Amino acid sequence: xxxxxxxxxxxxxxxxxxxxxxxxxxxxxxxxxxxxxxxxxxxxxxxxxxxxxxxxxxxxxxxxxxxxxxxxxxxxxxxxxxxxxxxxxxxxxxxxxxxxxxxxxxxxxxxxxxxxxxxxxxxxxxx
Length: 127
Description:
- The protein is mainly β.
- The chain has one domain (4-122): Immunoglobulin-like.
- It contains no helices and nine strands.
- It is elongated.
């Protein structure tokens, strides 16, 4: 996944925190279900890695999975494990942003992928 600079598009997508209030999505945390590279066979986990080339372009980035803002952030050369999993045959949208930098990707958990984690590698290449 390559990060590209865009305007403030997507800023509203990260508006909710991982709690439920009327009108917001229900943000269920799955922390602890996946251990490193393995998950229960009926779901996929997520791992977000930010490349070294992002150093100097941003300090940290916030992560949302299906509009649920995660408590942890990801930093250049860092790894982040969201408190969200994806059921087999389902998909979730992952949005990562910091200032003008935004990544967005829909991740589907196929039956073949069940029990593993999906790595999302974030690069800061300018167009």
